[in-house]
Amino acid sequence: MTVVDDSTLHLLPQTPRLRALHTTIRDRSVDRDTFVLTSGRIIRQLVEAGLELLPFEPRDVQTPVGRTYHGTRVAPPICGVSIARAGESMEAGLRAVAPGVRIGKILIQRDPVTKLPKLYYSKLPADLADRHVLLLDPMLATGGTALAAIDVLIGAGVAQEHIVFVNLLSAPEGIAAVRERFPRVRMVTSSIEERLNENAYMLPGIGDFGDRYFGTDVA
Asked: pLDDT (tens digit, 9 = 90+) per residue, 24-61?
C-alpha cells in the first residue's frame, strides 16, 4: 500500500538526525528515560509542524533598536485534544510551544464484545467549535480510534478542515481509513510504516508506545 505526501498528509523531512532519533526509540533495549526524552524531541518537531498548518495573520512589533518588524502570529484560537492514554505523552510538547493552550481529553477503548471503538470519556473546552484543534495520539494503526475521536470533535462542532491529527508513527492502513472518512482532516507524522502485522502492530514499529512511555511494559 503506497501513501503519497500531499496537502492532507505531512511527513516530517526524513533527515539523518530524525532517523537517528527513530533508531533510539525503536531499539527494544533502550531504557525508559532515554525513550521518553528522545520521543519528546520528535513530538516537539511534530507539534511545530502541526502549528505551521494553521492560518496566520500579520503582526507588527517594535524591536529593541526601535525598528518595526512586520511579523505574523497564529490567527485562530487553538486547542489540543489528547487521546488517552498515549496521547497524553504529547501534551508537554504542545505546552512547550504554545504556553497556556487549552487541552481536552478523549478516552476511547475497544469494546471487548463488539471489538469496535467505544467512547468512555471526553472533556472538551466549551468553545471548541471556534478553535483549530491539534488531535494528539502517537500511533495511527488501523485508524479505528482516530475515526472515533474525530467523530467526537465533529460532533462538538469542529470543522474537518480545522483538525490537524498529529502522530508519531502512521500505518498506511490507518492513513487510508482517515482519508476515506474525513478527507479534509490533515495529518502530521514523523514516519509512514511499512504495514500492520496480523496483530495490528506496525512494522518495523515501536511496540506499544504507551506502555514504553509510562513504564507499564514491565512487571
From this structure: 999 999 999 999 999 999 999 999 999 999 999 999 99
Q: Are 79 and 130 in contact (CB under 8 A)?
A: no
Domains annotated on the chain, with CATH: 9-214 (3.40.50.2020)
Distance (Å, rounded) from C-alpha 186 to C-alpha 50?
A: 9
DSSP string, 185-202: -EEEEEEE-SEE-TTS-E
Residue 145 half-sphere exposure toward CB, CA atoms < 13 A? 24
Cell 470543522 sits on residue: 159
Is this prediction's pTM over 0.85? Answer: yes
Q: Give the model confidence (pLDDT) of 103-128 as tens digits.
A: 999 999 877 777 678 899 999 999 99
Residues annotated as catalytic are 110, 114, 208, 211
Residues ≥6 apart with Cβ < 8 Å to 172 = 1, 2, 3, 192, 193, 194, 195
Number of H helices, E strands in the chain: 6, 12
